[in-house]
Amino acid sequence: MPLVVPPPANDDEVALQRIYTNAGVPNAEFDGVAPKGALCIDTTNADLYINTGTKADNTWTLVGPPAA
Q: pLDDT class for 20, splitting at 50, 70, 90?
């Protein structure tokens, strides 16, 4: 029997499934796009950020220490 996965109920669930990328620290270009909890990889510095703000007004917080 196949596994049936229900569609996401809201943006918070979608955020767990999507990872954004950006050259440098993410900023306002993701406002209105990336919901709270979304992840973004800084492809220049190999750092990982999480949106601790809202979908309308992102606040990108570094996860862990900066990459060496």
A: very high
Note the pLDDT of residue 66.
83
CB 21 within 8 A of CB 43: yes
51 touches 60 (CB < 8 A): yes
Give dist(CA 60, CA 36) in Å, integer.
10
Distance CA 59, CA 7 (A): 26
Burial of 28 (0-12, 13-18, 19+ CB in 10 A): exposed
Give the global pTM: 0.74
